[in-house]
Design brief:
heterodimer, A: alpha+beta, Cytochrome-c3 Hydrogenase, chain B, three-stranded antiparallel beta sheet, 16 helices, 47% helix, 14% strand, B: 193 residues, alpha/beta, Beta Polymerase, domain 2, five-stranded mixed beta sheet, two-stranded parallel ribbon, 7 strands
């Protein structure tokens, strides 16, 4: 290999440094990245196309399967769009249940990300800790919805399940456990010398670039953009709460827009979510959670509706948008899904420029990319290897959920 | 800080800038939660020629956030596609954000839209998506080196969200339920019951 000629380094679509399929092509001079290009769309599934031949209630279940981490994000955005077209009012209690489950999703998603970030930095013991701690939120989600992923709790006009009084002590116990462990998480992620040296000053995204590229969520807020839909454009129960967007200044640091700031924002958003859930549990209004129990009636209302609407939700990764247009037919005439990563991924070529080759995994991960889906356990290895069939796994998961309900 | 206008004032200002190019407008309000806090969405239909002008006029009011450009085919028999520029302004100001959605019909016979990347660099990604999904040609946008949303070997002149003769042909559709179990695989470890 001759001299310092720029080399092309292809990474992905499948690569140990990436958690999800995306192809990144880097041009490097020595250790330094001089330009980067990326190719998403490696797992294109044609979900929008599939939606155009289904009715809104079927699409709600399809939206649950867009992403394995954001199980409520897409169904909530889609349901909110349809509710606006069909002029359906969600009962107040339904808004609160939606908010609580959305915030649990934020906790588990941020912890998942924190674990992945630790792994990308080569700090695997912290990765295990973060994912161990995440299990509590997964259990709470399973308690409320019956599922760990693909919650299927949102329905057009509300939620399919209520949070009953018996569940509240268990949810509070989970929140208290997070409060106890939060100080430790903060110390481990934000005071560690190695994490600081790898993350401070890398993957820089300026305020101006963030605005020009319309980035969303923690990626934006780490660059000093105060945008947070829950505060600016309150929906569900967020309008009843007193919340402020989390910026890196919360940790006393200045806004640099680097990888470290993105860690700060996400860690502190976990604390914010705990508070939101507690406030919602304290102030749950009585009444039903669903506008109409009978699916046939929901469908007949949707069939009569025509018009267009946009449903938005501040997902863990930032704004998700669903545009829906209906014209009085069974299936919508248009459905556009804008996931959070759609708005964040296109800054990769900018934040990777000038980076060191070794920092690429953490910089790529720092926007919390969500390309496709996660899966439930498929194989366990406990001394001897055993492969479970789909039926056995289903049976085991039913049994586990029932144990939690006892 | 710049003055904050009410949704009705925003519509008036846009009307003043766009004139006859603005075909209609409506303000829709949605309120949720126990306190019924209101959110406003402004829907405006414009002529295709005025897309760039509309984005520019909005930018004079406030630097907007572009969520994405949505778009759909109005039907196999219809002569038009329709695109929606989903903007919002006053993002970052508590309980003030307001969506501004510009819709425009694009004739299938001449599917061109102007780029707005000279105003907002970041619009390139979502403009590129309209090219791949609907076959809309974005004037002034540098041609992409590769596809961003579809597989690289996706055939030319087929656009997944079109409903007319450029739609995905039946030969490309694979129904999962009709696939059955592949024949060249080893047997399942615990039987196939």
């Amino acid at each position: 290999m001759a001299g310092n000629a720029p080399y092309k380094v292809p990474i992905g679509p499948i690569h140990p440094a990436l958690k999800e399929p995306v192809h990144i092509e880097l041009t490097v001079l020595g250790e330094e990245v001089i330009s980067a290009d990326f190719t998403p769309g490696q797992t294109h599934r044609g979900i929008e196309w599939m939606g155009l031949s289904r009715n809104p209630v079927q699409i709600v279940h399809l939206t649950d399967r867009i992403c394995g981490i954001c199980g409520v994000t897409h169904s909530l955005s889609f349901a909110r769009a349809v509710e606006q077209i069909a002029d359906i009012t969600v009962p107040e209690r339904g808004d609160y249940v939606r908010t609580i489950i959305a915030e649990f999703e934020r906790i588990q998603s941020h912890l998942l990300w924190a674990g992945v970030a630790a792994h990308e930095l080569g700090f695997d013991s912290l990765f295990y800790l973060a994912w161990r701690v995440r299990e509590d939120a997964m259990d709470a989600i399973e308690l409320i919805t019956g599922n760990r992923v693909n919650y299927d709790i949102i329905q057009i006009g509300g939620t399919r399940r209520d949070i009953v009084d018996d569940q509240v002590p268990k949810i509070r116990k989970c929140l208290n456990a997070y409060k106890d462990v939060f100080g430790k998480l903060k110390k481990l992620f934000l005071e560690d010398a190695v994490i600081k040296s790898r993350c401070v000053g890398t993957g820089l995204l300026s305020f101006e670039t963030s605005m020009a590229y319309s980035t969303v969520g923690p990626t934006s807020r780490a660059s000093g953009v105060t945008a947070d839909l829950r505060v600016d454009y309150p929906y569900c129960a967020y309008g009843d709460l007193d919340i402020k967007p989390v910026l890196p200044t919360i940790y006393g640091s200045e806004v640099n827009g680097d990888t470290y700031d993105r860690i700060v924002v996400r860690i502190f958003e976990i604390a914010q979510s705990i508070e939101i859930i507690e406030t919602c549990l304290d102030n749950m209004p009585p009444g039903p959670v669903l506008w109409e129990e009978k699916v046939a009636k929901i469908l007949s209302t949707c069939r009569k509706a025509s018009g267009e609407a946009v449903g938005r939700h501040e997902a863990p990764r930032g704004e998700a948008v669903h545009y829906v247009a209906m014209d009085g037919a069974e299936a919508p005439i248009a459905w556009k899904v804008k996931a959070s990563t759609y708005s964040n991924a296109h800054v990769w070529p900018i934040i990777l420029k000038g980076a060191q080759l070794a920092d690429i995994p953490i910089i790529v991960a720092s926007i919390d990319p969500c390309m496709s889906c996660t899966d439930r356990v498929a194989i366990t290895n406990n001394g001897s290897t055993k492969i479970f069939t789909k039926e056995q796994l289903s049976k085991m998961s039913y049994e586990k959920t029932r144990r939690m309900l006892q | 800080m710049d003055e904050i206008y009410t949704p009705a004032e925003v519509v008036d200002k846009l009307k003043a800038s766009l004139g006859d190019s603005m075909l209609d407008s409506s303000i829709r309000v949605r309120a949720e939660g126990a306190k019924k806090r209101e959110n406003s969405n402004i829907w405006i239909t414009i002529r295709r020629e005025a897309i760039h002008q509309a984005a520019e006029a909005l930018m004079k009011i406030r630097y907007p956030h572009l969520s994405c450009i949505a778009g759909y085919d109005k039907g196999a028999q219809d002569e038009n596609l329709r695109v929606q520029y989903i903007f919002s302004i006053y993002g970052g100001i508590e309980k003030t954000e307001c969506m501004v959605i510009f819709s425009a019909d694009i004739p299938k016979a001449d599917p061109h839209i102007p780029t707005i990347t000279d105003l907002m660099e970041g619009a390139a990604f979502t403009e590129q998506e309209k090219t791949e999904y609907l076959g809309i040609i974005v004037d002034g946008l540098e041609p992409a080196k590769h596809k961003f949303f579809l597989p690289q070997d996706f055939p030319d002149n087929v656009y997944p969200l079109r409903k007319d003769d450029k739609k995905v042909p039946d030969s490309m559709i694979k129904n999962l339920w009709a696939c059955g179990r592949p024949e060249n695989r080893p047997p399942a470890p615990l039987g196939d019951e």
